[in-house]
Amino acid sequence: MSALAQVAGDPTLDPPAAAPEVKRRSWTAYVLMLPGVLWLCVFFLLPLVQLASVSLQSRYPGFPGYYYRDLNFSNYASALTDYAPHFARSFLYAGLATFLAFAVAYPLAYAMAFKAGRWRNFMMICVIAPFFTSFILRTFAWSQILADEGWVAGVLNFLHLLPNGHIINTPIAVVAGLTYNFLPFMVLPIYASLERADPRVIEAGGDLYANGFTTFRTVTLPISMPGVLAGTLLTFIPAAGDFVNMELLGPQRGKMIGNVINDQFLAVPGGYPVAAALSFTLMAAILVLVFLYVRRFGTEDLV
Amino acid sequence: MTTTTRTTPPATTTAPKAHRPSAGRRAQVWLADHFAILSAILVLLYLFLPVAYTFVFSFNDHGKTNIVWQGFTWEHWQDPCGVQGVCESLVTSLEVGVISTVVATILGTLMALAMVRYRFRGKSASNLLIFVPMATPEIVMGAALLTIFVQGFSGIGINLGFTTIAFSHIMFCLSFVVVTVRARIQSLDPRIEEAAQDLYASPMQTFWKVTFPLILPGIAGAAMLAFSLSFDDFIITNFVSGNESTFPKFVYVASRRGIPAEANVIGFSMFVIAVLLVVGAQVVSSLRASKLKS
What we know:
The structure holds two protein chains of two kinds. By secondary structure, chain A is mainly α. Helix content of chain A is about 70%, strand content about 0%. Chain A contains 16 helices and three strands. A two-stranded antiparallel ribbon of chain A has the order 2-3. In chain A, strand 2 and strand 3 (about 65-70) form a beta hairpin. In chain A, helix 1 (about 1-10) packs across helix 12 and helix 10 (about 200-205) runs antiparallel to helix 11. The two termini of chain A are about 20 Å apart. Chain B has a domain at about 85-260: MetI-like (MetI-like fold, Orthogonal Bundle), CATH 1.10.3720.10. Helix content of chain B is about 70%, strand content about 0%. Chain B has helices at about 25-55, 75-80, 85-115, 125-135, 140-150, 160-185, 190-200, 205-230, 235-240, 245-255, 260-294; one strand at about 120. At the A-B interface, helix 1, strand 1, helix 2, helix 4 and helix 5 of A face helix 1, helix 3, strand 1, helix 4 and helix 5 of B.
């Protein structure tokens, strides 16, 4: 879990070692690094370079599926104009799901860190265990749970809380699915940062006559901020690129950007260049959002 | 449980005229104190709800689609391979999972050792190279891999299929292995290794007799993480698999016309096996810990 918490930290900085450690300089290090670095270069960097090149290719007119090397920036223009609503929806749904996941995960992580006692390991297993069932099976299970015949829709309809009588095949179901699917990525980093906190610090808030909410806002939440930051990133990034929840739970129209990229690559003949431009735009947009977000919320707590 | 002691007012400071708080007030205090644990239980129930559905619908005596409950049957548990393609895809997923776990764990452990124990040129660049794949949406990685496999590597005889799935899975498991193992190595006291060397152990002996056994739990954890990431991956696999089918891909394709209950049987069985493994590992490690204490 500390691993997950570390993800949000500045990757270029090693955490300070507990004892001043003499680090050796040796060619052994290069031998140890070489296979892994090569693998990442060939199967991560090189494909990204290729994706960049594809995003500028043009189609041979009349031969769908054949492209020639080019500097065709109109792929980006059409990616941004034709699919702007899809981008907006993706970020909106992913943002909502991240917020909901935070709201649901925090009490759980808090209880695990401070209230669980000897049940702590048991609860930890409970958080991870559901994710050993294939995530597509679980998402499909949500489509059964939220179906019109199901009890959730029944109860909500009885209370007249559903404007058009359905949950399934609406954006609500998509956000619910996204919230559920990435929840452990939110719980585990928050738990990891709370677990390291000294419970006496939080008790001190109470001793100084702060009420429960004030203690939470001024003591507990800031302590767990690195975990919250890691958790929100680990939830938001996969949620923004996801297409499975939309496919299984969402409406026919009004897809997310992940669906467009997936369809353009795998179902639309000749779709490669625009799809590659969309992928690159998505990656860039996420990097910018993450950068702004980390700068806004993360500076002091992460160093 | 230290925080719960706050609810009982300390007897020494209360004046004798202090009266018992009203029932409403006590209920309020009780709720405030147990709010976290109650909501935690609710969240855990929420997490398990779809798993329970998967389990229950593995007994559904369904016709064409397994969406609505139609009646109880043991049939699917007696012959989980009864539906065409389900077990073939499961075998593919297990093979890919084992191969990518083994390769990614070995490569990742070597990298983690180098990152913690050595100083070398290009360390921060390597750090970035390890970090960025974890922050890249899967759909972008899948798309990038597809373009390089189709437009580049097919020229040297690598076509979409088993090999490309395994290559891709090794790639995205690698970063998670490095981060997990590195955290474990960082938590080691370097003086233990120094002590071994003071006792005239060679670097090789130090590694195999001291360092390796100490970081083994971290490596095991990383391997389990890698296997579960690989086994459950769908988005990248969908891009690079060609005609090959893995278990998640089988389920996804089947979901258009209704997932057969046999897939529920397999999915739930994997869940049970994984939980037993995790619980077993916990028991073993706590036994080891209590042995060390005594």
